[in-house]
Amino acid sequence: MVVPRLPMLTTRTDLCSTCAVMGGLTRRRSDLRRSCSNMGGGAANCIIGGMAFEAFGERDYRLFWTTQFISNIGSWMQGIAQGWLVYRLTDSPFLLGFVGFANSIPQFFLMLPGGVVADRFDRRRVVSASQCVQTLTALWLAIAIYAHRITVWQIIAAAIVTGIAMSFSGPAYQAMVVDLLDDRSRLSNAIAMNSLQFNLSRAIGPLIAGVALSLYGPFWCFFLNAISFLPLIWALGAIKARQIRHPVSEAAMLSHLGEAFQYVLRERIVLLLLAIVAAASLFGYPYLSLLPMIARALFVNDAKGLGLLMGGIGAGALSGSLVLSVRTPKPSRMTTVILITLATFGIGLAGIGFTRQQAPIFALLVLSGASMVICVALCNTSIQQRIPDALRGRVLSMYTFAFSGFLPFGNLFGGILAEHRGFQPTMAVLGGSLIVTAGVAAVLARTSS
Cα(177)–Cα(245) distance, rounded to whole angstroms? Predict the structure, then answer.
């Protein structure tokens, strides 16, 4: 797990997540006519339901995808349980947001250096070390829960440690996808498949967590998350990634970061896409940390209700990911679709501010989940297509920073506002801010073009 982010405790990340690498490219009709071959035999393609899973022809990618999927399910389970537990322990929307702040603030300072690390060192080892740290923090919290000695300060401390680990694994994880492929032409499909597994786990994990919480309590969600890291750690040692490293001297680290900044400032469209991701993180994603508060207001059984709400978001996110896997907008229309989905993301959140009925809120969360994924996925895809390999880790660290670096302040703002005004005004403000951002970005996009 590297990027999932509910109340921002462990990762996935994604985002580091989030932020996960997300996106996809339109495939030709001839690609969709290819027959399904034996995946285990190293086939180049597999067609299921009209979608070409070309990247599954790569043994290393297939192994990484499967174990990452297992880990992300565990991460979403812990994400649900942690938010539920924090709210049970404190009854404070502010502390719900503060846990997310504690997890994300290390990334504000360390994510960009993490991009340099991703370009200079073995990305498998960087990601593996992060997974080991997150395994230990999840296990520590599980033991504290089992012993009935858990406190909110232990959860905050674990969130900080996890955030530090994610600061280095996030850029390495995103940049490593290309290292897993012998055939670079499969990169776009690999990005799309990463999005698919991330959002499939987003749909499955919360539903399992909701049932586990109501029947057995939070211990099993934390413990199973710790166990879920182990297959991924094994896989990272088994794969043979083909990374091209670009070693630089210690004194050159700042100058190499500067090179990435110069590239982004020169490529105005990349700068605009990063700004959109930052706005989505600042005003959009904080609603995830407030879901335990919403669940308690709407459901008698808040544990099952929380799982149901997250399942709605996951269903929408999965739907958006499947749409992108089948068909992605042409490059000439990609920015337009990004702006439309950013606005619909805001409409979904703002709508929650004007109703307390379960069915409409569930439907709005499905809309928000789909819009959120399509918007951020297309930003990721557009950036990935443009950046040169020599700058990949550093530019992707800026993408991850745009997502994770602004998230702590959004979580803190959302928590404070919800503490004093309740969840409905908070959702209206967050959604309205996204709608305004989409309008401003549309004007800037027209000016840039």
Answer: 14
The upper half-sphere exposure of residue 224, i.e. CA atoms within 13 Å in the direction of its Cβ, equals 22
CA-based max dimension of the chain:
60
Distance CA 25, CA 328 (A): 5
Alpha-helical runs (H) found in 121-186:
123-146, 152-176
Range from 84-88, 319-323, 429-433, 439-443 carrying the lowest mean pLDDT: 319-323
| pLDDT of 109 higher than 60 | yes
* Residues 225 and 344: beta-carbon distance below 8 Å: no
pLDDT at 241: 64
Task: Give me the count of residues in the chain.
Answer: 449
Distance, CA of 377 to CA of 277 (rounded, Å): 10
Confidence of residue 158 (pLDDT cuts 50, 70, 90): very high
Residues 6+ apart with CB under 8 A from 24: 188, 189, 191, 192, 195, 324, 325, 328, 377, 381
Main-chain dihedrals φ then ψ at residue 50, nearest 5 degrees: 85, 5
Specify the CATH class of 29-448 in words.
Answer: mainly alpha
Q: What's the Cα-to-Cα distance from 34 to each of 57, 58, 192, 246, 326, rounded to whole Å?
A: 13, 17, 18, 38, 14
Domain-by-domain residue ranges, the chain?
29-448
Exposed, middle or buried by CB within 10 Å (0-12, 13-18, 19+), for 420? exposed
To which residue do tokens 């992108």 refer? 324
Distance between CA atoms of 234 and 237, rounded to whole angstroms? 5
Query: 261-274 burial string, b = 16+ CB within 10 Å, else e?
Result: eebbeebeebbbbb
- The neighbour count for residue 407, using CB atoms within 10 Å, is 35
Task: Compute, in degrees rounded to 10, the torsion defined by CA atoms 117, 121, 122, 123.
Answer: 10
SS3 300: coil
Q: How far apart are CA 436 and CA 433, in angstroms?
A: 5
* Closest C-alpha among 68, 423, 393, 392 to residue 230: 68
